[in-house]
Amino acid sequence: MKRILVSAAVTALFLAPLACDLEKTGAQLTAEHVMVGTLLATPEVEVSALALAGVDGGVSVPDGGDAIVIPAQTAALVFFGTRSGENSQPSGVTGATATLQPQGGQATALNEDGSGSYSRTNVGGSDSALTYASGATYQFIAARNGTRYVGQVDDAPVQEAITRFHPPEGFVRHASGTALSFERAAVSGGKERTLGFVTVVPLSSDGSKGEPTYSNVPTTPVEFLQLVAVPGSYREAQVTIPGSAFPQSNKTYLVIFQAVRLGGAESDNLFIGSALLAGTADVGVIRTN
């Protein structure tokens, strides 16, 4: 699978014995169709009554101190569109059949949401057809009028455990309005560090999640395409979340850290800048004071 970032020097490659690869890459450079695809998983999270109440250990918690369990979730999303210029917002293609397929496994159909978006979600095992498997190679496929467009992510990453998220107390005490930093796990085996996406959401006393107070996850097709060209900032060993992500005192927040591997266009009829992502998360529980 090719993950080539093209520069002016690409013309020099025509002197090398890579005619087949260059032919395919050249087609991908001029391809009109573009794809953004994500397969993201979060684990089940247990939030203790102490974290929700913000009291010190050893203090009695009303109602027996039951923990709240937030179910595991796996979500797949594909945006399939056409582009008319380098910096233009792609236009969504409707009426396609979108599927997600692990190499050697069964394809899972995604539901059409409109405007070129296709998705499917498994919450707490409610949809066993959609799962995430570390180490798998995933193909994101859009088919329309008898033509298939394929993007691919190799070697879906394992969960990256963040030590800061798991103190003995089970949650992190943190001053509201101040930045929170943590170190990512060391890279081993000569592999490139995965991308790191962070989302912070407030949590109510009944376990309901509010709107995110912070996220560095791209949200538009253009932002995802820009990620392909400049991914470096997402690979830093230290991650700092701004203090504005924790605006309220005496509040519980979830910090969701997704370790994500970046893939790209596999078929020659798909634009080389297409962004395909697969990853799984570690989650920290933060209680502000």
Summarize the SSE layout with pairings:
Blueprint lengths: L18 H12 L2 E10 L2 E3 L1 H5 L14 E3 L2 E10 L8 E2 L4 E6 L5 E2 L1 E4 L2 E7 L14 E7 L2 E7 L18 E3 L5 E4 L11 E9 L10 E2 L5 H9 L8 E4 L10 E14 L9 E14 L1
Parallel strand pairs: 1-18, 12-18
Antiparallel strand pairs: 1-4, 2-3, 4-5, 4-9, 6-7, 6-10, 8-9, 10-11, 11-17, 13-16, 14-15, 14-17, 17-18
Q: Keywords, please?
A:
mainly beta, two-stranded antiparallel sheet, globular, about 290 residues
Q: H/E series, N to C?
A: HEEHEEEEEEEEEEEEEHEEE
| Secondary structural class | mainly beta
- What is the average per-residue confidence, as pLDDT, rounded to a whole number? 86
Query: In angstroms, what is the radius of gyration?
Result: 21 Å
Q: Major β-sheet, in short?
A: 14 strands, mixed
What shape does the CA trace take?
Answer: globular
Strand content: 35-45%
Amino- and carboxy-terminal Cα gap: 48 Å
The low-confidence parts are 1-22, 56-64
